[in-house]
Amino acid sequence: MLNPFRRGEGDGPTLGDGAEPATALSQQGLRHADGYLPLERYGTLGDGRSVVFSGADGAVDWWCVPNMDSPPLFDRLLDAEQGGYFALSPDAPFTVERRYRADSNVLETIFTTDTGRAKLTESMNSGTAGRLPWAEFARRLDGLDGHVRFAVSLRFGRRADTVSPYFSKAGGHDVFHAGHVLGVFRHSDNVLLDPLVDGQITGTVSVGPGERAVVAIVAGEDEPLVCPEIEEIDARIDLSDAEWRQWTERLRCHDRFRALTMRSALALKLLLYSPTGAIAAAATTSLPEGIGGEKNYDYRYAWIRDAGYTIKAFLRIGALAEAKAAFTWLLKRLGESEPQVCYTLQGDMVPAEKIIDVPGYRGSGPVRTGNLAGSQHQHGIYGDIFETASRFVACGNILDAASAETLSHLADDCADRWRLPDAGLWELPESRHYTMSKISCWQALARAVELADDGQIPTTCRDRWLRERDRIAAWIDEHCWSEERGAYLFYPGSDMLDASLALAVRFRFDGQDRLRRTLDAIDRELGKGAFHYRYTDVDREEGCFLACTFWMIEARAMLGQKAEAEAAFEAAIEKLDSGVGVYAEMIDPDTGAYLGNMPQGLTHLALIQAAATLCGAEL
Question: Cβ distance 112 to 95 under 8 Å?
């Protein structure tokens, strides 16, 4: 059957028309023998509320509906055998090329079989006025050469702690019910579906030159649902692409690393939860930091640290609306109660951990929801929020009276508490006097003094903040430096190193010679190939932490070691260049396999900061 949708003028670009460089892969061996797809083989799509994980083989293995922190509608990412998925793949052996459209979060994949070539275009759709009031995931097939037949397969997971999904007919539509989610499966006439069975959809579709097919899911949670015509959904793919490109056009970055910077900015944009302005650390839960290990955590929450760093990255590239929304959200949370390490995307307390009875990615359990960090105290939150405020006003913006009062109280709190141990940046179970935590307190009070001198916050306690700032610096020099090791230590009395100390350069902590020597020690002892482990001996449990490598690069550049920084940047990017530009938290330095939750905001924002610093951009 000929597709009623034929490519016409005004449609989006074909793969190659200004799109980003493609990654070519063969179907053979694309998935591991255990059924899991390597994390670097996923692209991500989003609409400001949820994020879809689309694999290189045409299978969507992760989508939480309607929000990033909702239970997953598709969860094969964590359960290869029984998990839910939505696949649109050739029914014959194929090779695949995929990349994002230029400056867009619309993803394109070309499948090539012995009989022809076809292009899959995927989008979490938006409208002319921004995010739609429903979730709309659209998948378009265009025939290019010959003919390609695709199998359509949709299966919902049937976990013991969820309601079993079922289908019904309403208004002539194929409607599914999965717990609190109500959805409709929409498709063009040339998609031939088998009789519906509760919990799954199967069918086929063939496309040749000039022929088009579209399938889509429209969904919502406990709310009436619109059922747009499939032609409207198809048109919104290109509308969404235009909206993404319009957004990136307003950003600023150096031409040298423009593609890398824009791709990371687009990844960060997916993590901005538009209903509140919160920034999620990542869009997944429980992806392991080491295959077979138990370091699997839920990152679908807003950390003060991650949000603060992301806001600074947004400010640096000129994404002022996003920076303002996220900064306002942060200040309101901090003004409501005692500061917390992290919050839900709605601004509530993070729930306690709960174990979900699924196997986990490549058998790496347990799978968790909730996060124990919500009950921790980390001194780093002081430095993070004050550095964010400092960057906000340095860009020519001003603080309101309520926010200034909140910051003043936080500075007092920091001055009171800096002598106490905390959980540290890495959220470890042992409370200690972590060097990086003390530097963060120094950073907070140093920025507080500067903000007071600039008239941005009350000056009532300015002199006390100054005295405590200097006491912290003296304490660090006395207790945290090891002349024998030639480095600042992880914490006093240890013999361990911490790669996050590279951030002290950006924070303008005193003592550049000591910081330079610390970087050298980190490279020697925590470096592995192009990347770095977080701290001493953690290599036994996890991969290299990607943000640490970009922090090291940025620090080298700021200390005048630009040649070394550029060489390190090129080495890291070359090793990472195996997917479509969506990065995880960690990497196996030997195999290049991604590890940990993704898209990882810390990784992408650290890349943006490093690239901008290498280009000599203003901080």
Answer: yes
> CA 458, CA 466: separation in Å to the nearest integer?
14
Backbone angles phi, psi at 24, to 5 degrees: -95, 135
Sign of the C-alpha dihedral, residues 505, 507, 512, 515? negative
pLDDT digits (tens, 9 = 90+) for 425-484: 999 989 999 999 999 999 999 999 999 999 999 999 999 999 999 999 999 999 999 999
pLDDT tens-digit map of 568-602: 999 999 999 878 999 999 999 999 999 999 999 99
Distance CA 189, CA 205 (A): 10
pLDDT at 469: 98
Q: What is the pLDDT of residues 235-273, one digit of tens each?
A: 999 999 999 999 999 999 889 999 999 999 999 999 999
Q: How many CB atoms lie within 10 A of CB 106?
A: 28
d(CA 534, CA 552): 11
185 neighbors 236 (Cβ within 8 angstroms) = no
Q: How far is CA 218 from the centre of its chain?
A: 24
d(CA 430, CA 490): 13
Tokens at residue 427, please?
């959220």
Q: Quick check: bond before 13 cis, omega within 30?
A: no
Average pLDDT over residues 288-315: 93
Q: Give tens-digit pLDDT for 104-121.
A: 999 999 999 999 999 999
Compute the distance between CA of residue 370 and CA of residue 342 in angstroms, rounded to an integer: 11
> In this structure, are residues 442 and 385 in contact, taking their beta carbons and an 8 Å threshold?
no
What are 16-29's pLDDT values in tens digits? 445 666 666 777 67
Burial 567-598 (b: 16+ CB within 10 A, else e): ebbeebbebbeebbbbbbbbbbbeebbbbbbb
Of 558, 587, 562, the C-alpha closest to 575 is 587
The pLDDT assigned to 159 comes to 60
Class of domain 250-614: mainly alpha
Give me the CATH topology for the region 23-248.
Beta-galactosidase; Chain A, domain 5 (2.70.98)
Name the residue ranges covered by the structural domains of the chain: 23-248, 250-614
Of 373, 333, 324, 371, the closest CA to residue 352 belongs to 371
What are the backbone dihedrals phi and psi of residue 336, each rounded to the nearest 5 degrees, phi first?
-85, -30
In three state form, how does the secondary structure of 4-70 look? CCCCCCCCCCCCCCCCCCCEEEECCCCCCCCCCCCHHHEEEEECCCCEEEEECCCEEEEEECCCCCC
